[in-house]
């Protein structure tokens, strides 16, 4: 049997339940949280930890902000 730990609750419309995770799942969740927290400009300076992080990196690289009206043009 795999040991699990309670990590919180999950809910949806009309239902809720406890949420448990094993050690490997906690490690993956931890890495995904850091990938999200460091997404954006920080993603360009370090290697993504997860597939989720690599997707965030591609989105950050593809994002090209456009100049908005009144943002410095004359």
Structure description:
With 74 residues, the chain is of the alpha+beta class. It has a domain at 25-64. It contains two helices and two strands. Strands 1-2 form a two-stranded antiparallel ribbon. It starts with a strand and ends in a 12-residue tail after the last helix.
Question: What's the quick description here?
Answer:
By secondary structure, the chain is of the alpha+beta class. The chain contains two helices and two strands; from the N terminus they run E-E-H-H.
Primary descriptors:
2 helices, two-stranded antiparallel sheet, 74 residues, 2 strands, 36% helix, alpha+beta, 23% strand
Low-confidence stretches: none
Termini separation (Å)? 68 Å
Number of strands: 2
Query: Major sheet: size, sense and barrel closure?
Result: 2 strands, antiparallel
| Gyration radius over CA | 19 Å
Basic shape: flat
Mean pLDDT: 80
Which secondary structure elements does this structure contain, and how are they paired or packed?
Elements: E1 4-12, E2 15-22, H1 23-37, H2 51-62
């Amino acid at each position: 049997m795999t040991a699990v730990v309670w990590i919180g609750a999950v809910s949806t419309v009309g239902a809720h339940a406890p949420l448990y995770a094993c050690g490997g799942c906690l490690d993956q969740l931890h890495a995904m949280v850091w990938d999200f927290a460091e997404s954006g400009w920080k993603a360009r300076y370090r290697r993504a930890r997860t597939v989720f992080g690599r997707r965030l990196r591609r989105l950050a690289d593809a994002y090209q902000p456009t100049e908005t009206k009144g943002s410095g043009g004359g």
